[in-house]
Structure formats: structure tokens, C-alpha cells
């Protein structure tokens, strides 16, 4: 039982149409699934990823039109990284983000790696990470119809940053319950705060890292549009996921049990600082109900809610997508 890395990150948007424009037209990601939140079918659930939606490349969004402003703070997933092939790609992105009038902080050094911290139009906290010196979990492949050149495009999710007031309970879960080990640290850009610790699992590298930030100067985050709902970690298959259910029970961690999501099976629980973690199987994947060439073009509904299609579509605002 060893987690393979990051599976996906799910965040909140207040406007699916504008969200679609930014992540496909500006960032060049592919919409690989247009579906609904299975727990509340009145809202869209959009999945952006690499060419075929490989595990570890998915950035997803729930549309909540009335979502308020996010007030950043602790007990949060405070940053999502997107991997690009190398430092030369960052030079391309620096120019592209500037031309597209995207709020960014320029190229920064983070340990051995170069990055560009930036925000989407709703304040989603993002970072482009160069894989120039990265080793470990392989990235995906840029979609051939992307608005970004294949040698410059986003190839997957990089490290996820967690921000907490007291790091000890979260570190305990990462290392003693999950399969992460502390592999390094780097200076916190906020003066007076302790270094940010790096935890890795599986083959390691950007696709398998969690960065744990301690902030004693912040209150608990008030989430809204532009915030992250949960992070999911990769599990090989259902058999292993069943073993994780037992492991969580043995550590007295309340959990959801296995939940059917059709494109994968999932298991949810909160660590002691209140951050929502998910464990997800690698398969069956997004081609379970669509041809790879047509991913994301129409509204996909799992078989167990397909009978509700007319009712579901009546509640959704039309979303124009043109993959």
C-alpha cells in the first residue's frame, strides 16, 4: 500500500463559462469531462487535464454561481501547481501570462526549481512548476489541439500546498497513516514564518509532493470562488482502496467508505486540521463513456443518473464548449 501521487485537485468556480475559457484558451488544458457534481446534480463539474485525462493531470471545478469571496487562511489547500516541461517553457509562459493580462509574480526560485506563481480571474492560487530538474512520477502529454505548443504546455499537477496553524497533526497523518516521507524544505516567502516542508510518496517528484506551510499569523480560511475543495491521491485499484478503508478505520479516522464516481472510485476523510483528502483509483478513466477523440464535448452522466438527464439539464445553464 503506497500512494502513487496526486490524482486530482477539485476547486470552486462561480462561472463555468469564464472558467472554461481561462483553462482551455489561456492555459491550454483540455476539457476531458463535462459532467455534474454527483452529490448535487444542479451544478457542473468540469475536468481539465492532459490529452486523455491521465490520473495526476486533472484539475476540476464545481460551479457554485453564488460562491462568495475567498478569505485565505489556514486549514486550507492554499496552492495548486501545474507542471511544465522545463525552464524554457517558463520563459514562454511569462510572456503569455503577461500578454493575456493574467496576474502573476514573475519567475521565482523554489529550492532547485523555477516557478511562476499566478492567479486565475477568480483568485485561484496557482503555480507553474518547471520539471527541468524533476525526477519521479512522469507527466502526461499536451493535447494536440491545445492553444499552447506541445513542448511548452501543462503536463500535469505538481505539488499541492497545505497551509495550517499547527503542522504536527497534519504531518502525523501524512507520514504515519498515508505513505509520505519528509524529503526537504525551502524558505517561506513570508517573513518570520518557518520553512515550508516537502513530503513525497511513491516515485516522488512534482507529481507526488505535498508542501506543508505553517502560518501562525492567519485565521482559518473562509472558502468561496477561487478556493480548493479537496485534493485526491492515487490508489492503484479497488482492492487497494478497500485496504485503505480498513487502515483509516484502524486509525480511528471517520471516512466515507468507498464511493462510486464511475470514472474512478473514491474514499474521503478529513485530517485533523479539517482539510479534505480523497483517495481515488486510477481507473477506469474518462473514456469509460466517451471516445477519447470526443472527450468533454457533451454533458456526460454516469449510468446511475442517466435517467434523470432531462431534469438535470433543465437546471443547468447552457455551457458552450468547443473542443
Automatic annotation (TrEMBL):
Coiled-coil intervals: none
Name by which UniProt lists this protein: Ring-cleaving dioxygenase
Limits of the VOC domain: 5-131, 156-282
Query: What InterPro entries is this protein classified in?
Result: Extradiol_RC_dioxygenase, Glyas_Bleomycin-R_OHBP_Dase, Glyas_Fos-R_dOase_dom, VOC_core
Q: Pfam families attached here? A: Glyoxalase
Q: Indicate whether Oxidoreductase appears among the record's keywords.
A: yes
PANTHER family the record matches: RING-CLEAVING DIOXYGENASE MHQA-RELATED, RING-CLEAVING DIOXYGENASE MHQE-RELATED
Annotated source species: Virgibacillus sediminis
GO molecular function terms listed in the Swiss-Prot or TrEMBL record: dioxygenase activity
Q: Which UniProt keywords apply?
A: Dioxygenase, Oxidoreductase
Amino acid at each position: 500500500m503506497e500512494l502513487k501521487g496526486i490524482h486530482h485537485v477539485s476547486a470552486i468556480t462561480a462561472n463555468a463559462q469564464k472558467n472554461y475559457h481561462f483553462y482551455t484558451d489561456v492555459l491550454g488544458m483540455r476539457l476531458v469531462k463535462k459532467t455534474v457534481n454527483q452529490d448535487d446534480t444542479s451544478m457542473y463539474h468540469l475536468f481539465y487535464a492532459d490529452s486523455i485525462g491521465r490520473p495526476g493531470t486533472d484539475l476540476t471545478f464545481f460551479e457554485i454561481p453564488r460562491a462568495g469571496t475567498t478569505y485565505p487562511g489556514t486549514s486550507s489547500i492554499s496552492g495548486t501547481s501545474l507542471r511544465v516541461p522545463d525552464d524554457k517553457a517558463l520563459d514562454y509562459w511569462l510572456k503569455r501570462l503577461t500578454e493575456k493580462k493574467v496576474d502573476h509574480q514573475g519567475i521565482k526560485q523554489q529550492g532547485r526549481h523555477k516557478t511562476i506563481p499566478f492567479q486565475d480571474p477568480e483568485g485561484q492560487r496557482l503555480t507553474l512548476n518547471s520539471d527541468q530538474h524533476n525526477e519521479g512520477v512522469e507527466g502526461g502529454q499536451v493535447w494536440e489541439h491545445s492553444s499552447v505548443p506541445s513542448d511548452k504546455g501543462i503536463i500535469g499537477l505538481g505539488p499541492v500546498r497545505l497551509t495550517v496553524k499547527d503542522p504536527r497533526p497534519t504531518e502525523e497523518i501524512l507520514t504515519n497513516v498515508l505513505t509520505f516521507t519528509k524529503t526537504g524544505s525551502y524558505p517561506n516567502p513570508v517573513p518570520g514564518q518557518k520553512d515550508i516542508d516537502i513530503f513525497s510518496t511513491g516515485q516522488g517528484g512534482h507529481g507526488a509532493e505535498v508542501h506543508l506551510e505553517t502560518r501562525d499569523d492567519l485565521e482559518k480560511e473562509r472558502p468561496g470562488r477561487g478556493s480548493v475543495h479537496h485534493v485526491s491521491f492515487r490508489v492503484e485499484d479497488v482492492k487497494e482502496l478497500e485496504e485503505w478503508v480498513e487502515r483509516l478505520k484502524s486509525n480511528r479516522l471517520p471516512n466515507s467508505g468507498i464511493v462510486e464516481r464511475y470514472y474512478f472510485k473514491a474514499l474521503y476523510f478529513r485530517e485533523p486540521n479539517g482539510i479534505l483528502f480523497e483517495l481515488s483509483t486510477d481507473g477506469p478513466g474518462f473514456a469509460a463513456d466517451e471516445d477519447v477523440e470526443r472527450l468533454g464535448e457533451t454533458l456526460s452522466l454516469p449510468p446511475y443518473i442517466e435517467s434523470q438527464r432531462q431534469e438535470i439539464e433543465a437546471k443547468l445553464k447552457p455551457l458552450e464548449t468547443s473542443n
